[in-house]
């Protein structure tokens, strides 16, 4: 195995440690795999969270997600490492049982796919961004629907197709 392949495998294992923390809620060792300068692009939408960096940001994210979603689970579908980056395709499932950044609990279950892109520096995750199916996620929570009655049949047909693709 080449040195580049070994580095890629090490980087994937670092990412898997973060996934394990998300799945269990155990963030006691976050500083072992989260860089002190860790930056999460996903937290930039929230003014108070946009200031967080390092393991503290990751810990805050895990706590907030686990408080909002019981049975939260990230299932790795595939991970690809190249140089200092790891891309992981995940199936994310859970039940919305707590406040999610101002969205009160709906009790609805959800299942969507996401691509998580992380950058590794000094053997730790230094940057994270995600590409998620937020439309599917919000539809499953029941917080969005067809914007206009004339689109309701199209929306319901599309919603039916989406539920078959779980």
UniProtKB/TrEMBL annotation:
<protein>
    <submittedName>
        <fullName>Ester cyclase</fullName>
    </submittedName>
</protein>
<dbReference type="GO" id="GO:0030638">
    <property type="term" value="P:polyketide metabolic process"/>
</dbReference>
<dbReference type="InterPro" id="IPR032710">
    <property type="entry name" value="NTF2-like_dom_sf"/>
</dbReference>
<dbReference type="InterPro" id="IPR009959">
    <property type="entry name" value="Cyclase_SnoaL-like"/>
</dbReference>
<dbReference type="Pfam" id="PF07366">
    <property type="entry name" value="SnoaL"/>
</dbReference>
């Amino acid at each position: 195995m080449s040195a580049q392949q070994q580095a890629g495998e090490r980087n994937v294992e670092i990412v898997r440690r973060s996934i394990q923390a998300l799945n269990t809620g155990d963030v006691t060792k976050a500083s072992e795999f989260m860089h002190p300068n860790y930056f999460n692009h996903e937290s930039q939408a929230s003014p108070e969270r946009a200031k967080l960096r390092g393991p503290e940001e990751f810990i805050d994210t895990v706590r907030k997600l686990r408080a909002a979603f019981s049975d939260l689970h990230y299932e790795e579908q595939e991970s690809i490492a190249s140089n200092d980056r790891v891309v992981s395709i995940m199936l994310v499932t859970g039940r919305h049982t707590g406040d999610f950044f101002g969205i009160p609990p709906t009790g609805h279950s959800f299942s969507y796919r996401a691509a998580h892109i992380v950058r590794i520096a000094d053997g730790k995750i230094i940057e994270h961004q995600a590409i998620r199916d937020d439309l599917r996620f919000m539809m499953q929570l029941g917080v969005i629907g067809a914007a206009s009655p004339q689109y309701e049949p199209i929306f319901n047909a599309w919603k039916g197709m989406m539920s078959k693709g779980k």
